[in-house]
Specification:
Layout: E1 9-12, H1 30-43, E2 47-50, H2 63-76, E3 80-83, H3 97-102, E4 106-110, E5 114-120, E6 125-132, H4 136-149, E7 152-157, H5 162-171, E8 180-185, H6 195-204, E9 210-215, H7 220-229, E10 233-236, H8 253-266, H9 274-281
Parallel strand pairs: 1-2, 1-10, 2-3, 3-4, 4-7, 7-8, 8-9, 9-10
Antiparallel strand pairs: 5-6
Length: about 290
């Protein structure tokens, strides 16, 4: 990837744990999700990454929830759908049904395990602390399910060692290069959100890999700038960050996407359209 390349902007609409108490713009219902997807698309995003929520905001993996998202979004825009599969304490067999049933273009594939935590310096204690387990048995099961229904895996890398986890999956024929890789940066227990870390991990990826950054919280904009300068793709959205660079809380995902696209254009890179992103990702032409 290079500076001359179009940039695929992904928008992570809602996440699994963020709430309206933290930011009123967080969408829960199918109508809210669909309207946020439309706003993201109108601002320049080609892909939306979506976690399931019940109408009260609780995490959900019910197929009916994701089917409603798909149907409502398709009424409004042609944006590429990327559905989450990550969960803690839920067997893989119970969090893949929506992928098989709804067949989004892309499905998130967590590429390794880590200690996932958040620490409060003010309180001198952990806000949360758990093991995010993604053993190869789960990864290979999910990949086989995705391959069977033609869903493209997006490999979620939370730490530098997760790069190596892709190699046996490629050797087994379950992953077919060039891989689509998402570098999740700034989670305590995973890789640090620094330009130096980004430069290093990009150097370890296979040539031709399509990669993007998902920087968490206040590192969103510095790392987005670094990814754009290195020729990568980017992800923004209310799942990861509520604020613009001037620390104003946004009122929609569209504002975050607009900021990312403005940053791309400032260095001469244009956001990829849905058709262009599908071609870059090997998804075929838009319907």
């Amino acid at each position: 990837m290079a500076l001359k390349d179009k940039v695929i902007v992904t928008c992570a609409l809602t996440g699994a744990v963020t709430t309206k108490k933290q930011c009123e713009a967080i969408p829960y219902t199918a109508l809210e999700i669909a309207e946020e997807a439309r706003r993201a698309w109108e601002a320049g995003a080609a892909v939306v990454h979506i976690h399931g929520r019940e109408d009260n905001g609780q995490p959900s993996y019910r197929k009916e929830v994701f089917a409603a998202y798909r149907d409502e979004i398709r009424k409004r825009c042609p944006i590429i759908l990327n559905f989450s599969t990550g969960a803690v304490g839920l067997p893989m067999q119970e969090r893949v049904g929506h992928i098989v049933e709804c067949k989004p273009e892309i499905g998130a594939l967590n590429a390794g395990s880590l200690t996932y935590a958040k620490y409060s310096q003010k309180r001198k204690q952990f806000v949360f602390d758990f093991v995010f387990g993604n053993p190869f048995s789960d990864i290979t099961y999910l990949l086989r399910q995705m391959n069977e229904v033609g869903v493209r895996p997006e490999c979620e890398l939370f730490d530098t060692g997760h790069v190596e986890n892709l190699e046996p999956l490629i050797d087994m024929g379950l992953l077919k290069p060039p891989c689509d890789v998402n570098l999740v940066m700034g989670v305590l227990g995973g890789m640090r959100a620094t330009p130096e870390t980004l430069s290093f991990i990009v150097s370890q990826l296979r040539p031709g890999t399509l990669w993007k950054t998902t920087p968490i919280s206040h590192m969103t904009w510095p790392l987005t700038a670094a990814a754009l300068a290195l020729g990568g793709n980017v992800r923004v959205g209310l799942e990861d960050n509520f604020y613009l660079p001037d620390r104003r809380m946004v009122k929609s995902n569209g504002e975050l996407v607009a900021q990312a696209t403005a940053m791309a254009r400032a260095i001469g890179r244009e956001p990829a359209s849905v058709d262009e992103a599908k071609k870059m990702l090997g998804l075929g032409a838009a319907a």
